[in-house]
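Justification of resources, computational component.

The compute hours requested in this renewal are based largely on the per-chain cost of generating structure records like the one below. Each record pairs the submitted sequence with a full structure-token output. That output is archived, and it is also reused by downstream analysis tasks.
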Amino acid sequence: MTISRRSFVQAMGVALLTPFTIRSLAETDSEAYARFVLGGSTSSDEIDNDGLVFDLSVASGDPSQAGVVLWTHVNPEAYISGQSLYVDVALDEGFTQPILSAEVNASDITAERDYTVNIDLEGYLLPDQRYFYRFKYGNLSSRTGRCHTLPSGSLENIKMAVVTCQDYTTGYFNAYSHIADEDVHCVLHLGDFIYEYAEYEGFEDSIVHSLALPSGGSVAMDLEDYRHIYKEYRKDKNLQRAMEMHSFIITWDDHETADNAYWDYERDTLGVPSHPYQTGDNNPDQLRQLRRDAQQAWIEYVPARVKVNESASHAFDYLQIYRSFQFGDLVDLYMTDSRTYRTKEPCKDGTDWENYWCTDYEENTQTMLGETQRDWLIDGVANSTARWKVWGNQTLLAQLAGTVLGRPLVYANYDAWDGYQWEREQILSSVKDSGTNNFVVLTGDLHSSIASYLKVDFKKVSNWNYDNLVGVELMTPSISSPNLNDTVEKGIDVGSIFTSLLNGGVQVNNPHIKDFVSNIYGYAVIEFNVDELNWTVYSIDKKADNPSTAKNVYKKFNYEPVGMWLTEK
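The structure output for this chain reads:
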């Protein structure tokens, strides 16, 4: 009989000493994943509760059926040249049932990676198993983290928390205190894990955490600025506890780089319309470097299994973060990247009159995902045999417009999918044509709670036209980022269309939207069952520093794909 390497490691615990280099599932030669040898540990029993060494605690991400990415950061003030880092994994919190121990080579704890360590345990764990892990450095042990590998085979139920948009400067992360206590398999983060701002623009009189960036800028200008922001966010105890207790699956939106980021294909460089590098010199090389800096900081501070090519000079080749996850036969999840490859937001460069009559949003040259990623998403959903096909998406997919008899007169937000309508129709029509009736899109970005039907043609107003219905879109409110109600109350211009829609016009003008609110903060929990899903939105105050603040149910929704019924419970 043949014994696999994984089975042998699990059987022998810490006995195996063979060295190997970690590689991601993408078979990249990335140095983002630390090398280690199995076996060896220290007797460090004192827990570093004060963060003397593990100042940002621990985290895990991108669980698979055979592994997970573990993450930590060594405080530079505690760093000792040549000293190894150790990691223990066990079945129990007391580590009396060890699975493996390993030594991370000291040469992989460097200033070049800002003393962050990502370890990919792919191939060394079993499906649907909860594990506990800890790092050790010198005479101190990190706080214990908990992770959960993905299930395989037949599955009746899976539950996930869904989060987005966590500006640290204008609010407290109280929601994460509650997420830490949720009985969920993992946490999906749909983007804006950080904001590039030293202070959230327009809310300077409401700042609770002001960030003094190393560059002295008002927004991130380079790698050190991005790193500083990640470190400040990751110091938050509520976020730390949530990331200790659950594995996160994270994608990004615009603010991990800069507001309304896109790719300027004509100049082959980053586009960031309100960033000083574009409003100032507009130097393409400087903008390319800003994108590279944002990418590097992301892979340093986010535990994720992604494709990285350290030798690549172009942003497209350096990092690919769109990827999929399989939860047994119940859920296939596709996490996309709608910022790296997207074209410029349409209808912004003319006068108000010209922009009103602009129809560039209909052009097939407008892309959010790029052709390769779009085909990957369509093929994945169409060929999936899982009960539920789920898309982790960043900006609102459903139409949001001022209309007359169903015909849109003007759209509220061209930065969302209304600015990329040809591609939206390509995706939704392909999903419909594939016969997929259990298609769910999870969305962030708008700092609102939305439940909506998805249609091939949004001009057809009936929600009972099954030939036109594709699935549902569910948007989670922001953790802390200012919502539309806050923005309007501050007197900040959100556009005449948004303003009119907020005054009770969203559902009247967009009958596919079943529910819309933009005056709460919090998160959502989604529960997938074989025949239905349940979506619960929680409202949690972010304005006072109070981790035990009340968790209130805003609304609960049920969706049955057979009849395509989205109902409030």
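The first strand starts at residue 19 and ends at 20. The chain is about 20% helix and 25% strand.
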